[in-house]
Amino acid sequence: NSEEVYSRIEFLQGADGQLYYRYWNRRTNQLVITKELNQQGTPEDASAGFQMPQFKNPLQFYVAEFVSSDNPQLASKALPFNRDLQIVQREVRAKVRVTWGDIVREQWIRAFVGAPGERQTAEQQIRIHDADQGHSLVLSMPTESIDIGFRIRLKDFERKLDPGTSQASHYSSWVDFVDLKNTQEIWTVSSAGGQAQSLGVPTRATPEDAKPQVLHQFVSGYAVDGDTIYWLDRDNRKLQSTDIQSGETSTLLDNDKIGLLTGDEASNAFLNSPRNLQLQGETLFWVDELGGTSVIQSVQTNGNSPTRVVHSPGQVVQLIVDASKEQLYWLNSTAGQISRCNLEGRQMEIGIVKGLRRPTSFALDSKKQKLFWAENDKSATGTISRGVLMSSDLPKSSIEEVSPNKIHTLDVDMYAVGMTFNPQEDQLAVIAAEKPLEGYIGHHSGTVHATHHLFTCSVTGSNINKIPVSGLDLASNLSIIDGNYYWTQSASYYHDVYITMNAPVEFDSPTNGHSYRLFQESFSGPWKPGDPEYERVIPADSQQEDLYLSVLTVNRDPGRAIRNLGCLIVCLGIAIMFYMKAYFFKPRRKKAAGVPADETNDTATNTPEEAPSDES
Fold this sequence. Notes:
By secondary structure, the protein is mainly beta. The chain has four domains: 2-61, no CATH class; 93-140, no CATH class; 180-490, TolB, C-terminal domain (Neuraminidase, 6 Propeller); 560-605, no CATH class. Strands 12, 14, 15, 16, 17, 18, 36 and 37 form an eight-stranded mixed beta sheet that branches. A four-stranded antiparallel beta sheet has the order 19-20-21-22, with no helix packed on it. The longest helix is centred in the C-terminal third of the chain and has 24 residues, at 560-583. The radius of gyration is 34 Å and the shape is globular.
């Protein structure tokens, strides 16, 4: 019964001091049954609960130990250390005595439960410094991890409370199953839309890559030149080149190569947080960041002559090359302005368009000398926010006044995270999302909800045409190449997977081929601003109000090979049965009534021409 998935059992102590349980359906919000519960139960007299779809028998429960609210006790207590116990929460601690020379220290240490490379907190380490010897000791308690061949990214979490209580009646997670090696990659779809496909750049993880310490690749910018794709790997600080036909990838530029340049070839260029790659002829341009200053840099397509071109205080979020005018345009979201210069970084004009409100992207119509950009427009009270598309004529200089026009307003809580101009169709293409670039809003339903949308419109904001695209998720860096749409987005196998209580999700790992079942085990939180856990995870400038920790249990199904072998044996048995029936168990012929056996045999061997007549 699918309704059973939404059932819940609660335990409560009545005013009479007795222990009760109630069983109710959360989907219909109706109470099914209420009964008194034995305070000292045994497995033999366990009560029957609800039926979970993955189990044959109903869930049963009993009370092994009852702590009355009249005499409350600590809910946790120290136990002898056992490394084989499964950890389902991050709050596992162990009391450790460290003896190092003459130094003896005894303290509690919190287990480190996290991904490889995740930062540890002070309570997850014991640090001892021997000033006399000049040595330091750092002790941590990592947990044993098992590689499942893919990563799970929590995008949103939902918790619902029972009416009038702080008791969670329901909690669910929305997750992505992400490639083990790539975090963000290049995707594409035709101009007509359809199912979005990964371009295979960079290549996804193979069984040989399935190891915890594999370096994650994050495509933060790309440029296409025929069969060659140049792309920036933000996490590994590299400029890469991939041949689409052969799939071969080579490193065009990294900090090691820059450091080896000497003499006239020496360069002050760098790769720190590269993004937004553009190609002009034989030169590649990209945006990087050093401290609080953005730096536009360039390099030849053969990897030679890395050069700093422009320094722009603040955050430059996008770069455009005007090939016809041989100019660079960049959008500075911190300053709220668009600036330009020539390809060598000279003839700089800062703020040809100023006063932009939280700009996210922009586009250029070089032929008609028009600029387009996207802003986040908040209401006067700040309670309503929506994205707008703006346009203006391209000023001839930074002292010329511009008159921006609002050409299109998006729905409430919708923002343009990527836009580009299509000169062939004389229209704009826009990716709109339900939150700024890195955000996500869950809709608290098992139904997958599209959070990113692709549409086109005229340069005046009319003729809105929504492009039906499946699989668009956490997208940015939109471009149009040979009539097809390209962008970067999450390197996910599946988007927005809904995992809730008592309803596990099954997934076959494409890396190792194993089958896994994921359960919504529990959760922790919410943590608020100021809480240590919140401050450790959430950036200081974030407006997020709370933080949850979702605990998922991952079980591997080892019986697939056994099931397949069993099916093969059954099929083989059926085939043998039919074979034996046809060749070893021939049908027995029935005797004619009132005819001796020998005459019956003679009659049975007669041919149709020899069959006796009725007069015989």
